[in-house]
Fold these 2 entries.
Entry 1:
Amino acid sequence: MNIKLCISLLCVIFIGGCAGNQRPGVSDSRASSGQSSGQSSGSSNRPQAQPKPAKVTPTPPKNSAAKLLLAQADTAITRQAPDQAIVLLERAIRIDPREALLWMRLSRAHLMQGHTTAASQHARKAIALAGSDSVKTGQAWLQMAEVLEAQGERQQAASLRRRYAPYRG
Amino acid sequence: MTLTDRKVTSTLKGTYLVKKTPTSRNTKVSGRRKNSKSSKKTGSWLKRLGKWVLRGLLRLILWTLLFATLAGAGFGYYLDRTITKTFEGRRWSVPAQVFAQPLEIYAGQRIDKPQLIEELERLGYRSDANLTAPGTYSASGITLSTYLRSFEFMEGSRPSQQVKITFQNAIISRVQAKDKSAIPLIRLDPATIGSFFPSHGEDRLILTPEQVPPLLAEGLKAIEDRNFDEHRGFSVTGILRAAWVNLRSGTRSQGGSTLTQQLVKSYFLSNERTYTRKLREVAMAIILELRFSKEDLLTAYINEIFLGQNGARAIHGFGLGAQFYFNKPINELAVHEIATMISIIRGPSYYNPFRHPERALARRNRILDTFLADGLISNPKHQDAIGSALGVVASPNSGGAYYPAFMDIVRAELSERYSASDLRSQGLRIFTTLKPREQENAQKAVTSTLQLIEKERKLEAGSLQAASVVTDTQTGEIIGLVGGRRGRVDGFNRALNAKRTVGSVIKPVIVLAALESGLEWSTLVNDTAITMTSDSGELWTPRNYDGKTRGELPMIRALAMSLNLAMVDLGNTVSLGEVQRRFTDLTGYAPRNRYPSFFLGAESMSPLQLTELYGNFASGGFHTTPKSVIAVLNERGQPLSHHPFDLTQSIRPETVASLNRGLEIVMSHGTGRSSPFAKQGVAGKTGTSNDNRDSWYAGFDNSKLSVVWVGRDDNKSTGLTGTSGALRIWNNMQVSKGVDPIVHSPADNLVEIEFTTGMRAAKSCADVVVIPIRQPDTLPIKPGCGVRKTFGQRLRSIFNN
């Protein structure tokens, strides 16, 4: 019996090794191409495993108009004019609604106004849209950390900051 | 007897007695003398009486005069106060203006040249090779140049400027200024889509004196009141002339009114033709002339005068008149168009250019002749204008953008923050989310498809009705809203107010609750006959649409084929309470139906409410209340309120991603498969209520969510299913632009399963669908498909062996 068990265990190890990470998955022809495989698509809103270090500058919006409006909104944020930034960012989102960076910045502008609920929801939206882009995902979580900090959730905020520190822009 | 011998006294009755007084004279007098004395006495009495009456009359006249003067002064004061107050109040009572979303122009924007020309023409831009003025465009080859009008946007004003746009493959490839410098982003001016006019129906666009074209001002004076600059409110010669004409004709047809009198009549008086009213009109006109400048009065007249009726909406003033009749701002009117507008004043109904174009043209030409005779226009301009057609838009509301159904939701949304009075009088500028192109597209699809269905099925023409709501998937903003088969007509708004049984479009809520409870798309459910008993003992026996049963089948097939029995079984597995709890989370309200028939959509909802429900899916798991307003500015352009995006995460990303894959399969393999777009990356669900009373479709691609309802206002059967009714309208909505396929995030849990059995399979051996499965190891494998077991399955089989 012991020999049978040993053989079984060896087989298990062998098969497991051959199988590797094989899953019964199929390719998805319409899936958006991510920049990194650090995060899986269906990532929930909970922090995932420690991502590998990556560049800290997120890819700017592909849409030139959205990119321009984002730059203008950033200037408004720097000038402490969140009202103006929100108007610009919403306009940008109407042009490019699936761009996570825009939602992230919108979260920041709302946070500047003290609207933590809106800031939190927009950060969540950014996380959901960031998909497999690990830099955007990381920065969106860092934005969420800012919101949590403002909401008094300091421990959670600190935890997120530690986890996504490599993505601090 | 002398006069002193007598006393005249009066009695209470008013008769007079003559009292004799003692005298030393002989009382014996002859009869003759007696008679003479008696007549003398009578004469003086009469004289005194006459004097007394005269004095009394004099006093009466004086008192009357005094009283009349006082009363006149009081009335004058009252009139002055009333007129001044009303005039001032009315002069600045401006209905709120509502604007659509402006079209953004930038390199990369997906729009071709004809579509952009359509957008410009909707705004009243006209073709002009030389771009001589704002509001013109010129198309040539792959480029389109336009001279944009200036506009006061929320973020500030944009001056009028010339822009050159180059296209490549139905995409804007370059945008340049006149000096060839690149313009990264610019907006067209937004379409005015309506205004909130008061309940008495008067709608107007207020013009300032500077905005009034000189030809209009001078032309009005030339036609309506030649002595306007000289008189003090009324014209004696005018009144005498009118009186003479009236006298001769025996009627009161002419008024001889000056512009000021016409203004008074429009502001304060009725249309009755009496001399009393005429007197009041004159008095009021004089007061107005004393109080206000000629420029003020002329501008008020230009803003006030009635120019036509459009349903419940009365077109007042030349500002709105120019938009209504010519779809352009007043400053862009040509000479002949100004003459047409002036010709309408005399009789907006009689000279209505839509109904009586010949009549209006004849009067317009007479007016142009007067313009020439008075030296207001040159001879060539006169010739040019005489040779021009009337140039009005095809029909009322056909020019520009007038969308009453969308205006209803704007009104409802604003009612939470603004009073009706604010909306009607404060000159607010309301920026909305509507995209006229989407709106027109949806309306056209609704109207044409219903006509086609009625024709094909030999239904009574006009018996079917429909409604639709189109939103942006990510922001929840309403970009189109159709309230019925006839657009641009005020009436019952079915998109907002028709609450009809939704049928199977509710089923994704059951599936969502099932996925959240841990069930898989491959989980088997029972499509077998069932009878349920309510608490009150009532029996309920649901049936499939085709009356058949199919036994055990996977959840994905149950949803895709919309199998009632299987969905009831699934609902019971999850529990009615849990399904309804999720429904409430996703819509913001509790369902009215507390029975299992809720599983099959025995719940009444409006198309707008259904849009809110499906917005959770289309947005990737965020709840938004569909909204229509972006911002409200006051008349000086200062922001009063901004209506930001408002969303709340309602479904976990991986769950909603999975659900949406399922809804795509509904389109590719299920009840939506007849759609030509079924396999192009769209997700959706059809629905049909009992006896085919209601036909529903709710679906989305990457950018737009659309909900369509088809039914009858009398709630009788249409004979249509969700597929043969509402889905066809949706198909036609997509024809012009095609769909924007849903882009998925990469997923590592996608598995090929057989559609009919839910077993793991391959394309080569079965009709498979690709769908997320959290525990693929648990799936049985279809024999003969060559599908390899997973590591877990192998491990399990070893231990099992």
Entry 2:
Amino acid sequence: MAQEAQKEKSMVLQKEMVEGLFDALSKVSETGKKVCYTFVPGNLSELIRTFDMLPVYPEINALQSAMRKKSASYIKEAEKHAHSEDVCTYVKCDVGMLMKGNIGPTGQKLPEPDILLLSYTGCFTFMKWFETLKREYPNAKVIMLHTPYQENAKMTPEMVQYMAKQLRDEVIPVMEEVSGVKYDENKLKKILGYSKEAGDWIAKIFDTTKHKPSPIDAYFAGVYYIGPINIGFRGTPEAVEYYKELYSEIMQRVEKGLGPITPEGEMKEEKYRLVVEGPPNWTNFREFWKLFYDMGAVIVASSYTKVGGVYDMGWRHDASRPLETLAEYCMNCYTNLNLPQRIELLSKCIKDYKADGYITNSIKSCNSFSAGQLAMMREIEDRMEVPVGFIESDLVDPRYFSYSNIKNRLESYFQMLGQRKMMENQEV
Amino acid sequence: MKKLSELINECKELAFDLSYTRAKQWKEEKPGRAIVGYMPIYFPREIAHAAGALPVAIFGGGDRKQIIKGDAYYQSYICHIPRSIIELALDGHFKSFDGFVFPSICDVIRNLSGIFRQLNIGSFIKYLDFPQNFSKDIGGVFYKQEMEHIIHYLTSITKKEVTAEALNHSIDLYNKNREMIDFIYKIRQDFPWRLNMEDVYYIVRAGTVIPVEEHNKLLEQVCYHIKENIGTPQDKVKVVVSGAFCEQPAVGLIKAIEEAGCYVVDDDYQLGSRMIIGNIDAQSSDPLMALSMGFIKQSQYSSSIYDVSNPKEYRLAKIVKDRGADGVIFASASFCDPSLLDAPIFQNAFNKMGIRYIAFQYSENINQYKVIKEQVGAFSDSIKLWEDEPATVQVTNK
């Protein structure tokens, strides 16, 4: 029998927030609240909140379905309707879930969207996904917010203006029309103030991995920590309180010299400190995590926790420039960074958090991350002189999680890390 | 005037010259010239022409380049074209190229621009972000700025000033180019036996690696020849091929479709050369905005352009109707996200509209077409023999 997972208080708080959101979504027919489907990278939580709408995140539904072992049947359903085996499994899981009655992760039926807000940030598939959803929900209003790619490692004034104009002239008027709420810039500014605070806290939290042992796992636990800022609670006092609480819990662990909490309790010995690039596998999330903590490996930084915003390079929401700051936020999400920027960021993580190694989890159906990962890995290996490892899995398709393959590769990798450490110690 | 067979042979040589001989010669003929390589689907070649540069399409190595180093850059589940482009780059095929433009097609081509940056290939790399906003004052302005960046990169090499007059001249040349290609497709719509698809492919592709003035001369002669009643009609059905806009199928596959009993009366192979429908204003005082609006208002449907206000399934259905086609062949490169993610949209709509179709996947380097040929043959037969029956739906993976 599987061991009951130990949950930190912050995890419980987060669960309550998520359940509250899904509960509110299940009651929109009574409350009359309008529903906005949107994506995590480049999510305009603050704007959605300004118009008193409720967000639905199709990727979050997909990953939750995978963790509840429902994604396989949803994917199969989508594939029956001409969806290729070779494309993003988030899309297929979402489409399959829709075809099977759109029952959300909490067992409640999800409401149809009033708005499909496509913040087209860092992932081409998002665009195709909403083209598909538009055909399923012909009555929903569609808003496309085109986020230019940081191709030259810059957010230029013209890129910011392009986005701000879209927000002012196209996004906001449609939100006003659908919600029946007039745009209130002061309200948005107030919300953005909380977003800035949340950003400050999240940066501090992920920076605690500087400690040895690291008090948190910045990948497997990190995906829980980014939950509130990525599913609509950024810009709320509740999120700020949550992060304060979380930070305080983590600092208590630091004071006691404790390592991260895993589903099987506290990790006893930190043997290896790693930086991970790529999203996790969700279908076998606990097994996947266990492969690391069983070997004493803790993830001190990960790119995936930056998909909903990069806060560790100093950028913060600025309430004095509300639309421009939303534009910058969208452009500054991890997958909207060019490859040299990604390499720079991950190299900094390796250096700052004194990582022993770098692992790529290459996701079959996510080209936004995967295309270029091998070149990044080679560059990081050369530049940082750390051993690199490579594993493959998928987001929510259990057919592509091969436990023994991943285990074999990780075991070999950890052996190599172990030998290297031993040699370094001998040299010292 | 050259014979049609001579023209086709000339185009065939040019189209698959992975040494880009003519482009190199052109550059060496006069100091201050530059070559800019661009990836599929579409690049506004007019701006390069006006800046004194030769735009050269990079379609990958197809089935003519063995991949050794390229595979080390990409996982097995990523399409083939980026690995063959990397192979070409690392083997020095692009040594004479000054810069590279990566138009926004998909995440793979976008990230390939990063690998080029990392490998320091060329003196400039530009990811060309096409606007997904279609208002003149928003997306139109943004796209114009994107083109200005490319002009800046190019003129810093060529030292040529890009005037409105020069741009209008370039627009005019490319308008003529597209008009003549359209004429070829119009002839094929009614008399597809006059020039087979393989030859059309060579003729269009040759234009992506040589100066437009030279291609226009070739096209004038081809158009002259195909006005004549040449060739012999065969008992084939008419089809439209859709989905092959980026990674190109090998010529053998293009040929196999017609040999299996189909006349391809429209397609999206090399879509970039036919992307703009109709002429762009060549007398504008703001030619860059004219180009911008040409893209925004006159583009063919594409898997890379957000289509909600102008759904692609209806646009393809209209092409099928206008061309008098009997069905559609959805040909997608393996692991091509844009094409494969569009497949359910097209296929669900076509099931309702009663448009017959088949679908298969290919890779640029495959040269075994037996299965696809049988599938296409069965499709053609089903239309010819059971014309009144509902369309048979077949979906084949790889």
